[in-house]
Amino acid sequence: MKYFNLSIDNMVEDTSGITAYITLKNPITYNLEIIKTDLSGNEITYKAVVRKINEIKHRNEIKLLEDETLSDEIVIAAGQTKTIDLNGKTLRLTKNSAKVFTNNGKLIIKNGTIEQESTEARGVVTNYGELVIENVKIKDAANVGGSTIGSDTGSKLTVKDTEITLTGEGSVAGIFSNGTTDIQNTKITSSQKLAYGVVVNGDATLENVTSIGYHGGLAINGGKALVKSGHYEATGDAYGIWVTNNSTTEVVIEDGTVKSANAQGLYTAVDDGRQDAGTVGITINGGNFSGKTGALKASFADSKYDPWDIAIKGGTFKDTDVTEYIDKTSILATIDYCKTTDFLNNPHITYRTMTSFC
């Protein structure tokens, strides 16, 4: 049997004098073997050189066939479109002060595990372009700040069917996006005392997302945010969902569970004690809200500011008087705050059946 050690791109001639060519289409895989028979009936095996993930610099697609540990981060240049199929394998980075990926073009990552093992690193991906993450388990041990997935102003981020776990003590969030954000069927968990699960400061849609953070489940700093369903929880001293106004903020909550172990489930506040550049509108169509100190609270830095537009059209609010926020034009919210004798046997009532003392 004769063997040819061929690179993907080049023709190589061995001592037999037989020349062979390989033409491959993406995705590139490792340890490729092509077996043919020559004119004399001898088998000829063409073996491609093993490709490492850094070959993504030269290829549009790459597919892993084995786990790999990176020695440095991978940078996708502006104008490039790259796809990395992890193929059920694990990609690790142990280098300090680095990300696994910096994306300036379009990057698709799917079907496997990414582990940022260095406690001195700064997360997993920084996105300045378009980033799609689908069916990936991400573990981030960073202690020195940054976010597991950080997406910059003007960028586009899509995360689907993914699980993100923060195990270090210094990250800001599992996902921090200043661009357009779409998160679906994804779970983010963190026990870090400084970390949120998700922070958005741009147009965002979250559907069937579980986001649990010591410092909060979801922070909405600006833009239009649609929360369709899911579970948003603060296990520490902050809020399940926090809404503020770095810019004009419009929030619609369709459904989901919003809770806090030690504060309010949903909390809205003027950012940094000032009105800033924008206003806030929050519409609550449904969901279950609860917290140690109440289901919902709106806080304003100065009484001269008009109350933010909060309209409750549905939902359950445990042990909290939300009368002032109820939209009386709708069939309205289920209220669970009445403590008077008349309502002890029927604590869940609608606005239409409330009396003046409830």
> How is the biggest beta sheet arranged?
29 strands, mixed
Q: Gyration radius, to the nearest Å?
A: 26 Å
Give a count of the beta strands, DSSP E runs of length 2 or more: 34
Q: Tell me the helix content.
A: under 10%
Poorly predicted sequence stretches spanning 5 or more consecutive residues: 1-38, 44-51, 331-358
Taking the alpha carbons of the first and last residues, their distance comes to: 89 Å
> On the 0-100 scale, what is the average pLDDT?
76
Backbone structural class: mainly beta
Q: Shape, please?
A: elongated
Alpha plus pi helix count: 0
> Approximately how much beta-strand content do the residues carry?
over 45%
Features:
disordered N terminus, mainly beta
Produce a short descriptive summary.
0% of the residues lie in helices and 48% in strands.
Give a written overview of the molecule.
The protein is mostly beta strands. Helix content is 0%, strand content 48%. The protein contains no helices and 34 strands. The chain has a 29-stranded mixed beta sheet that branches. Strand 2 and strand 3 form a beta hairpin. The termini are far apart. 40% of the residues are buried. The N terminus and C terminus are likely disordered.
